[in-house]
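Hi L.,

You mentioned the student needs an example of a multi-chain input paired with its predicted structure. This one should do, with 1076 residues in total across all chains.
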Amino acid sequence: MQVPLSVGSLLEHAEKFFPKKEIISQTHDILHRLNYKEIGQRTRRLMSAMDELGIRNGDRVGTLAWNHHRHLEIYFAAPGMGSVLHTINIRLSPEDIIYIINHAEDKILFIDEDILPLIEHIHTHLTTVEAFVVMTDKAELPETTIQPLYSYEELLSAGDPAYEFAKDIDENQPAGMCYTSATTGKPKGVVYTHRAIVLHSFALGLADTAAISESDVSMPVVPQFHVNAWGTPFACTWFGSTQVMPGPRFTPKRLAEFIEKFNVTITAGVPTIWLGLLRELDQGNYDTSSLRAVLCGGSAAPLGLIKAFEEKYNIPFYHAYGATETTPLATISRLKSYQQDLSKEERFQERSRQGILVPGLQMKVVGEKGEVEWNGKEMGELLLKGPWIADEYYRDTRSNDAFIDGWFHTGDVVTVDEEGTIKIVDRTKDLIKSGGEWISSVEIENAIMAHDAVFEACVVAIPDDKWQERPIACVVLHEGIDTTITKETILEFLSPQFPKWWLPDDILFFEDIPKSSVGKFLKRELREQVKARYSPQE
Amino acid sequence: MQVPLSVGSLLEHAEKFFPKKEIISQTHDILHRLNYKEIGQRTRRLMSAMDELGIRNGDRVGTLAWNHHRHLEIYFAAPGMGSVLHTINIRLSPEDIIYIINHAEDKILFIDEDILPLIEHIHTHLTTVEAFVVMTDKAELPETTIQPLYSYEELLSAGDPAYEFAKDIDENQPAGMCYTSATTGKPKGVVYTHRAIVLHSFALGLADTAAISESDVSMPVVPQFHVNAWGTPFACTWFGSTQVMPGPRFTPKRLAEFIEKFNVTITAGVPTIWLGLLRELDQGNYDTSSLRAVLCGGSAAPLGLIKAFEEKYNIPFYHAYGATETTPLATISRLKSYQQDLSKEERFQERSRQGILVPGLQMKVVGEKGEVEWNGKEMGELLLKGPWIADEYYRDTRSNDAFIDGWFHTGDVVTVDEEGTIKIVDRTKDLIKSGGEWISSVEIENAIMAHDAVFEACVVAIPDDKWQERPIACVVLHEGIDTTITKETILEFLSPQFPKWWLPDDILFFEDIPKSSVGKFLKRELREQVKARYSPQE
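Structure written out for the whole complex:
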């Protein structure tokens, strides 16, 4: 049968088969508990309200919001009526946010209460927005010059709880979009079709990937404004999982408390989040025994982090890999059955890789001499193809640099071992070219972070007259660590693990390392700081 | 990206990521062990050989074969080169087989050695077949008048192990087909598109359905000529499971031995198979502890069967439901997390239902007054819609009776409870209409089969002057049961469970009950036997 894959149908399935299952949602003021039947009716009310406000098929619906149930409702209401969910990264600069909203031509904006001041500041620059909706628990709208401003809950009160999901969806039409920061220039927009989101949700439910299930209590820590919280809200809703949404400006403490209180079974986020949670677990006394999986992506997790979760807290920790352009799940690290026979250390080594390709995708790894051998050594750029991989940046000529001959060029440099397991060794742009050979900054970083005294490490290249580039390591020590850790300590620790010419020329100690809005190291900025240390202020 | 879902890509994934994993395959003479790398190369050789023989995009490729690795290779070779895998039910009558092959216009036939005599008998009636291939372990071809006849292994020897899977597949083109017996008239053909098979494979891998995984050792007992062995060979290959194929004319003993010997974790088949296996387990001494799931479908499993597997042998037993027209998985019975709190008996009752709809499909249950309430009582016909539901019978006017307004009318009568769990209560045509009310023959059958002395029971309607129709129960007792079991014993056992007017007017004892080629009760034939008992031979 020609039945389109549609995002609305995922929530419809939950309304019918999991009406009693709950969403536990922390907003600014209240811990809400709603079930899928209620979420379904509220989503239908929201669609009817947006219809009243003039939102039509194909219109972009912007959100500036944290992880909570109202954001989830928009996840289904926008694509459910044929419009496009456009989640906006609230941590970007005001300039970037103006650019993104105007470039996407958002027609309506849904805004969390605490983000309203930002919009107050920029709203006169927004050229396409016709309505602003504030998501607040309060009865009155806040004082503001933003016009026209609506209250989310008031819109819902007036809406129709029996409004129908659009039946004429083309599965290849846009359901969502998300802008990703670029190394140079403005953020680039990625469009997700209905087909991409539904197939990606299937992929998240597979026993060998995230195995998302009705029996799960899922707490996405990755923001809903970042690649749809890795697509977990779509999959969890479809499969009837309980969802716990930690809300605005959560702390590691709140995460730990929620895990214990709500028996969270699966959670997902970037390494920085897990480093923070680990500190909290070390300090507090939490029962985390309900957790069956911590999914970690966004950037490579150091082996030490994986070990700490698994050995100290008995929490299974899974490395995954993806990008904004890949919806995002592309690979996940799970041992194959026969790899269970490896030694513990070998298992950890394998688990520190990013895993094998998720069923449904195709990959190629291309080095300077064509496709690399799968020997765990040869480095090449990872290329991806598949029904949930984007095929362009939205109205952006930079598409031509990344989407070539039907393949998405990830910009990530990897090795592939005999098992087909990839390991991210660097970004193409962060590889260090020393004496005509490549040095992986990430591998050195991970090795340094395996040192007990080290909290974080980041390796960048500095120009070198003789070798072209040389690595410098920037290190943050754990709080309260004794001060006998020196450059030499680190270099001695590294030297048995690498060829001599890989060893950093210097080890610099930092209070912290600059990070992007999604917790990734900002190497460009760090490189400037390193340069500044070497060139005394005038 | 516009990347089509294609069957060939499933095996390509296994070749790359699971090359070492094995297929263990019993043929007539040999127990073969091949890995996915070898299966991949053999499949490529087969595609090149079929190409040489003139098989082109869209051509139908017929198979008359048991469950083994060569059959698996054709599963991927035929759709992999754009032609159509047409599995033929070898248990049908010669007349039906002639009809099916001619109606599908098979261009080539792959035949197991022991089925060759059948083809010898009918081959002059086949109007479209241009080549016959015999699948044998022997070096020489058997003596036969069939022409032209090829040896499978010889074709492979001459084939190209690097032949490429077709890259220009349209996901909506046919990948497979299977004919299903009709109550009246010739068998009806169902076509499976690439899209249907791939999406169905995703569904089989979901944590909450069959959860097929790399770590599984899967032994499909349901024949590969019956709805693609429920699609398990496609999913298991994609996800890298070990597969155990029990080969021609297997016995319950071989199944039990294979489970123990190869540590089978998941198997699938009809209730008759499991009744047979249960007898074997009762008689023998087998280690079945590796089994994590027995999937049971095709017809409703009696509660006693489920209990015997779970309580006596600690083998999780999952009811599933589907049809040839549904690829087939449509529902599967797994308890929701909060249903774990039910009493043991309530859990078994719930588990004896056919479960909730698999994600990706839509259902409606329509009774005489429109859609029924989900109260576990109201009966109606189950209607299904979705991307792996067929939309017609192949070139057959009977399509109009079953595919109406975009819904497949299953012909199965069900109730739905508050949880959305369906229970098959009958076939529309087998419902007994007594005094203007419906009686479910299946519910009475299951109740009778819960009696310790009963092996099988089948309830049919006989015409009645006063009530229109009345139920008669036909019962097969376990072997060696004492002969004090009478009509009254059974009626006394039933009477507390049903309204008085549901109780059968008579209980007849049989040596066995006629069954179809796929193990379902042949009620039409049984009805004739019952009538014969009441009308003494002249």
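You could point out the following to them. The longest helix of chain B spans residues 36-52. The longest strand of chain B covers residues 454-464.

Best wishes,
N.
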